[in-house]
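Researcher: Go.
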Amino acid sequence: MRVGILGLARSGSSAARLARARGHDVFASDAGSSTEVEQAAAAVRSAGGRAETGGHSAVELAGCDLIVLSPGVPPTAPILRDEAVARVPRISELEFAFRELRAPVVAITGTNGKSTTTALTTHLLAASGFDAAAAGNIGIALSDVALRTEQPDWVVVEASSFQLADIDTFAPRIGVVTNLSPDHLDRYPSVAAYYADKARLFRNATRTSIWVLNAEDAAAVELPGEADGCRRVFRVNTSLAAGEEGGWVDAAGDLRIRIASTETRLVHQTELRVLGEHNRANALAAAVAAVSAGARTDAVAEGLRTFTGLEHRLEVVADAHDILWINDSKATNIGSTVVALRSMDRPVVLLLGGRHKGEPYTGLLEAMRGRVQRVIAYGEAGAVVEQDLAGHVPVERVDGAFEDVVARAAFVANPGDAILLSPACASFDMFRDYEDRGRRFKELAGRFAGVAR
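Model: Structure:
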C-alpha cells in the first residue's frame, strides 16, 4: 500500500517505521518545522520513505491508499476537510499498530488515572513473571511494540479518546475505564462527543472480553452500553455487591479482590507508595486487570507494595523549610486537578494555568475549599483563571516567564504549605509538553527550595 502518515510526533514516526518495515510506500507529512519534526522527517527519508514538513500536500495525501492519523492532529484540521483527502480511509496509529501486533492487549482509557493505571498494570504483570510492555500514550508507541521480533506476553495500552476515534478492528482482551469527566472541550463540540470516542473501546467486544469499570462513576459504568463481555468493577468507598466481581477497599482499609468466587486480601492501603484515594482506585483497577490476565495474587500484592508512581503525577520533588514541592504537571484538566487537591493534607499554593481547554475553573472551587490558601495564575489561561476564581479564593496573576511564577509561589508559601503545580491546562503555550513543564518545575523547585538536584 501507499501509506500516508499525518503528523510526525512520536506515534507518527513509529507508524512510519512500521509501515516501511512491512514494505509499504510511505509519505509522511507534518505542518510543523521544529528541529524534532525535521529530524523525524529525515529518519523517514533515510528509511526509504518520503516526507514533507512545514505544510501538507493534498495531492500527495489524496493519492494514498490509507492515512494513519497522529492523535495530535484534530479532525477539524483543514487538510482533512480537503475533498480528495477526505475520501481516503484513515485510521489511528493505535489501529495501524494493532493490525500488526501478535500479543494480547489490556487497554486503559478514562479521563484521569490512565497513565498510572497503565504503568501499574504493567508492573503487576511483570511481578508475576509476564513479559509486559506499556505502550500508547505512555512509554512507547504501539507501533514500536508491533515491530518487535519477539512479541511480549501482554501489551498494556493507554488509549486516549483521540486514538480511539479512528479505530476499526482494535479489540483488547481486557479493557479498563478509570473514570469519566469533561475534558478536551477545546477539541470536542460536547462532553457527549468526547464520551462517544471513549466508548469506541467496546466497538469489537466479544463474549470473552473482560471490562473493568469504576463502579463509583455512573458514566464509566454506562459507557459499554450493551457490549458483550464480562464486567468486573472496582470500588474504593463501598464493598462489592453480592454477585459482583472485582476489587474494593474494605472497612479496615484492606484492598481486596473477588474473581470467580475466590476472594483475596492484597495489601492494606497504607502499604501503597502512591498518594490519595484516586490512587487506591487506580491500584484496584490495575489489580483486577492483572489478575484477569492471569497474574498471581501474591505477585500482585507484592507489586502494589513496590510501585512508586510516575513522574509528573503528584511527584514530591523537594521538601525544605517544611514546604513540600509537588509536581503534578500531568494534570491537564479540571478533574485531574480536583483529584490532586483532594490528596492534599496541608495548605496549598496552587500553580494554575497554561493553555485553556474550555472548562470553567469554578469547577475547582469545592476541592479548593479549606485547602488552597492562594492561586498563582499564569500563562495564556491566566486571565480566565483570575476571572473565574477571583472573589472565591485569593488569586494573583503572574505574567512573565515560568521562573517568575515559581519564584512568586516560593515567596508567598509558609512553612507547613505545599507548592503544587497542578495546572488544569495544556502546556503548549510555554512548553513542548507536560513532561517539559514538569521537568522545568522540578529544576526551579530544586533551586528555590535550596535542594541540589
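Model: The CA atoms of residues 89 and 292 lie 35 Å apart.
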